[in-house]
Design goal:
By secondary structure, the protein is an all-alpha fold. The chain contains 5 helices and no strands. It is globular. The protein starts with a helix and ends with a helix.
């Protein structure tokens, strides 16, 4: 239960940061390109790399810290950071085909699923 609370609290914080970053990017860059989402995904992935790299060097860090920061805050900020970490983990284990399949499959299936959801709702309306 403690882990769920840590993830929930961190997720709320991360989602708040995502909202603020998206609003700032929209105001700064305008509506012609989804700069906010792109910036959030890149920053979240950079933050995940820095965090996981740092935690790997500190063997005494409690698991609750990782859960709160990585799964909670960065997961709320962007799940793209978790996707990026999973893909790099596969790559670093030498499972290049699996990494490529995961990347392509995740992107294409997610796009297809969103499109399918839109079609279902539009057909009902």
């Amino acid at each position: 239960m403690t882990h769920l609370l840590l993830v929930s609290l961190g997720g709320a914080i991360g989602a708040g940061f995502r909202y603020l970053a998206g609003v700032a990017a929209f105001r700064y860059f305008g509506p012609n390109f989804p700069w906010g989402t792109m910036i959030i995904n890149v920053l979240g992935s950079l933050a995940m790399g820095l965090l996981i790299g740092f935690l790997a060097k500190r063997s005494g860090t409690p698991n609750e810290v990782r859960i709160f920061l990585a799964t909670g805050i960065l997961g709320g900020f962007t799940t793209f950071s978790a996707f990026s970490l999973d893909a790099i983990n596969l790559w670093e284990r030498g499972e290049l085909a699996m990494a490529a399949g995961y990347i392509v499959g995740s992107v294409l299936l997610s796009l297809f699923a969103l499109f399918a959801g839109l079609l279902v709702v539009r057909s009902i309306a």
